[in-house]
Specification:
The chain is mainly beta and 154 residues long. The chain has a single domain (5-140), classed as Roll (2,3-Dihydroxybiphenyl 1,2-Dioxygenase, domain 1). It has helices at 15-26, 73-82, and strands at 5-12, 29-34, 38-42, 51-55, 63-70, 86-93, 99-104, 110-115, 129-133, 136-140. The protein starts with a strand and ends in a 14-residue tail after the last strand. The relative contact order is 0.21.
């Protein structure tokens, strides 16, 4: 069984321009999370996942990444390194959230990992997760995964 992609992130030099681009190109709803800096992207549609679009830290060039839910972050990072990838961020506990890590694939693409089982089942209309990314610490809406194992804190 493959592991699910649970979140995406697009960060760059001009947060508002990026948000406007994706909103207009795909009719995505944007919910401002940090005014002028970061917004939650709600693509909608059947089977889609939510993400975030905002400014890169330290005015960097930015990146596009996604987060994959895996049962063991250390094992995943070890396998990734054996396949030519490299660890960018060791497993990190996010306050009131999951444990995450980040790696670069053999061509340098940044990808996030989220430890399962961390059930992201909404207990209200909106589901949020506090996520530490290379762009900072955010409350991020996510797609429900692994029902019945562990509920998000409310």
């Amino acid at each position: 069984m493959g592991y699910p992609v649970v979140h995406f992130e697009v960060v760059g030099r001009d947060a508002q321009a990026l948000q406007g681009f994706y909103r207009d190109a795909f009719d995505w709803q944007m919910e401002e999370a940090i005014p002028g800096f970061y917004a939650m992207a709600h693509p909608g549609g059947e089977g889609g996942i939510n993400g975030g679009i905002g400014a890169a830290m330290n005015s960097g060039a930015g990146h596009v990444t996604f987060y994959v839910a895996v049962p063991d972050l250390e094992a995943a990072l070890s396998k990734i390194e054996s396949l030519g990838g490299s660890t960018v961020m060791r497993p990190t506990e996010v306050p009131e959230g999951p444990t995450i890590a980040m790696f670069a694939d053999p061509e340098g693409h940044l990808v996030g990992l989220l430890k399962m089982p961390y059930c992201l089942v909404p207990t209200s209309k909106e589901l949020s997760l506090r996520v530490l990314t290379l762009a900072g610490l955010w409350w991020v809406p996510l797609t429900p995964i692994c029902p019945g194992i562990r509920r998000m804190p409310t």
